Amino acid sequence: MPSLWRAEAETRKFPTLDRDTSCDLVVVGSGIAGLSSAFEAARCGANVIVIDRRNITDGMTARTTAHLVSEIDDRYFELIDAVGEADARLYHESQVAAINRIEAICADEGIEADFARLSGYLIPAEAAHVQELEQEFDACQKLGVEVEWTRQAPYPLIDGTKALKFADQGRFHPLKYCAGLVRGIEKRGGRICGGTAYVAHEENLDSIVLSTESGRTIRAGAALFATNSPVNDRVAVHTKQIPMRTYAMAAWSPLRVSRTRSSGTLCGRITMCGFSLRAADVTG
């Protein structure tokens, strides 16, 4: 499936693992989760190797809409009902911390990933949805989420309705960001191996040995599996998963939401009853 982000970023090929080796941490999966984890470990002094069966960032990270949001699709009032206020608050704090961390890494590492702080909007697709937004507003107030009501949004509102506006959300270019993470990992002595498929592992008292499809092995102090679907456990997680597919489409838009940063009409995310919109400044 073609990717808007892939068309906007330089593709770099990484060598396959060509010999048996060892490290402190081996990361299986080279999307944003795997590369972020590898970067943080390398930053703390660990000797890191990242492997992927395909090329780096060739999976879901290249096809995400790249919203950076603390607002969630499943609604905070539902999360409170499921896990309680304390855990729901912890979840929100983790999302805020993640956005802050991406911003900090971009600044510290000099990564030009088109990062921008923006507002996000939760908009009713029909008048009856305002009641759901009122529930969400009350839940956000309990959790300390920064949110306010607005009757103006980058997307036209239905007459007589209002929207929730979430401050300090964000957007970025995921592949430019991941390319910066790769540079940070390599600068700290880490290795990135594409075309290197995990097939099995053996755990010992003081290490774990990963076997790859080519027959090469990696002996590591620890292993982190960061694949879109688990490859290290065929039962425990897969039996709890529900098959689902979502679609992301890119199109030119004449709406104010699509204007560039200089226009002052930025919007990170517009969410309406099952789908969301975001703006991206692209070339070509």
Number of helices: 6
Average pLDDT number: 88
Categorize the overall geometry: globular
Sheet-strand content, in percent, reads 15-25%
Task: Please state the second-level CATH architecture of one domain.
Answer: 3-Layer(bba) Sandwich
Query: Per CATH, what is the topology of one domain?
Result: FAD/NAD(P)-binding domain
Largest sheet: 6 strands, mixed
Structure description:
Helix 2 (32-43) packs parallel to helix 6 and helix 3 (76-83) crosses helix 4. Helix content is 27%, strand content 23%. The chain has a domain at 14-116 and 167-257: FAD/NAD(P)-binding domain. By secondary structure, the chain is α/β, with parallel strands linked by helices. It is globular. A six-stranded mixed sheet has the order 7-2-1-10-9-8, covered by helices on one side. Strands 3, 4, 5, 6, 11 and 12 form a six-stranded mixed sheet that branches.
Keywords:
284 residues; FAD/NAD(P)-binding domain; alpha/beta; 27% helix; 12 strands; 6 helices
Map the helices and strands.
Layout: H1 4-8, E1 21-28, H2 32-43, E2 48-51, E3 67-68, H3 76-83, H4 85-109, E4 116-122, H5 130-143, E5 147-150, E6 163-171, H6 174-187, E7 191-193, E8 198-203, E9 208-212, E10 217-225, E11 269-272, E12 275-277
Helix pairs in contact: 2-6, 3-4
